[in-house]
Amino acid sequence: MYHYQYLYDFTTQLFEKIGCSKEDATVVAELLVGAELRNIPSHGFLRIPDYIKMWEAGRIKTNPNISVVRETLSTVVIDADSCFGMIAAKKAMNLAIEKAKTVGTCWIAIKNSTHFGIAGYYAMMALEHDMIGIAMTNANPLVAPTFSIDKMLGTNPFAVAIPTQNQPPFVADFATTPIARGKLDLMGKKGLKAPLGFVQDKDGNPSTNPDILKQGGAILPLGGDYEHGSHKGYCMGAIVDIFSSVFSGANFGPFVPPQVPYLAVKAESTGEGLGHFLGAMQIDAFQDADVFKSQMDNWITTFRNSKPAEGQEKVLIPGDPERESEISKKRDGIVLLPSLEEDIKQIATKYGLEFKA
After folding, report:
1. What is the pLDDT of residue 165?
2. Which residues contact 114 (CB under 8 A, 6 or more apart)?
3. Distance between CA atoms of 334 and 322, rounded to whole angstroms?
4. How far apart are CA 118 and CA 32, in angstroms?
5. Taking a C-beta distance cutoff of 8 angstroms, is the pair 76, 68 a contact?
6. What is the pLDDT, as a whole number, of residue 185?
7. Which residues of the chain, if any, have pLDDT below 50?
8. Per DSSP, what are the bridge partners of residue 135?
9. Which domains does the chain have, with CATH numbers?
């Protein structure tokens, strides 16, 4: 069991060791520990070995030249210069918020980036400014479109955070697939099977093997199969891919460079690196913020008071499970899998640090 502050301090020190500035290392730590607190371990410490190996392979820069390459009053395109994705994305969201204060909304596309952690983090940055935050990213091509056996899309998450008056904010943060790659990795480490409808083998047959990706298989779009609406999940993933890559000039679909060290970068490309798309919308640009937030409280209360199905304790509002997890894990501590602890200890030793429970 680890206190979140210990994990935060360790992560900051580790990423400083590999060359990140103190400021950038703290951003990486915020995202990784934040994912653990919000019970999204697939984007937490599980990512550290991949991030370190990606840096060791020269595929991530710790001293990037992040630059604006195109700009209007309400739009920006940023070149992330192959940095840790969360560093560029946080800078971009701060810029979007500042521009939205003046012009009402701002949308920022990012190219030449890498994995940026949990999308909800950036969307939630807008909340304290009485703004709606939106964040999305494309990802490793691990997902087969409906009726395909080719891996063409990433899990392509999408997040929206909406401010409220007295109720907890509305925070939707979800992949456009039934499961993220990191969660499949966790299932494999735990010796569990994947539910049917999550993955398929290299020939397109349903599979329950969480390690099927390493055998040529693919993740399925949200819905699992056509009869259960996988074409809609495919559409959602495609929209995220287009907004994140075609707008920015990043690679799209199957050309997205892998964000794991064990897969080689393809020679063919359609752009630069990985892409993100973020935005901020000022409530006052549409109506008085207090009126809107009060009505959001009404919306949340109405839905929360709907009658739960038999066997269910309550009806959840998007953001409830993550918020409750954050409260309990800050109080009780964070558990890491033993196999992951060993991986982190080896990395710590390699870079002159100590990692202990």
Report:
1. 98
2. 54, 59, 60, 80, 82, 83, 84, 85, 259, 273, 274
3. 14
4. 8
5. yes
6. 84
7. none
8. 159, 278
9. 1-62+319-357 (1.10.1530.10), 64-178+220-285 (3.30.1370.60)
What amino acid is encoded at 321 in this protein?
P
Residue 163 contacts residue 130 (beta carbons within 8 Å): yes
**What pLDDT does residue 37 have?**
98
Instruction: Quote the pLDDT of residue 190.
Output: 87
- Rounded to a whole number of angstroms, the distance between the first and last alpha carbons of the chain is 6
Element (H, E) at 282: strand 274-282
State the pLDDT at residue 90. 98
86: which residues sit within 8 A by CB, 6+ positions away?
A: 27, 28, 30, 31, 116, 117, 121
At 60-98, the pLDDT tens digits run: 999 999 999 999 999 999 999 999 999 999 999 999 999
Q: CA-CA distance, 93 to 36, in Å (whole number)?
A: 22
pLDDT at residue number 265: 83
CA atoms within 13 A on the CB side of 30: 18
Question: Is residue 163 left, alpha or beta, with left meaning phi > 0 and alpha meaning psi from -120 to 50?
Answer: beta
Nearest to 277 by CA among 111, 117, 139, 163: 111
Cα separation, 256 vs 212, whole angstroms: 20
Give the strands of the sheet with 199-200, arranged side by side.
206-207, 199-200, 218-219
Residues with Cβ within 8 Å of 332's Cβ and at least 6 positions away in sequence, in order, are 1
Dump strand ranges (E) for 226-271.
none
Residue 319: its pLDDT value, please?
97
pTM of the full structure: 0.94
For 22-51, give one letter per residue: b (16+ CB within 10 A) or e.
eebbbbbbbbbbbbbbbbbbbbbbbbbbbb
Interval 267-281: pLDDT, tens: 789 999 999 999 999
The encoded tokens of residue 241 equal 């891919």
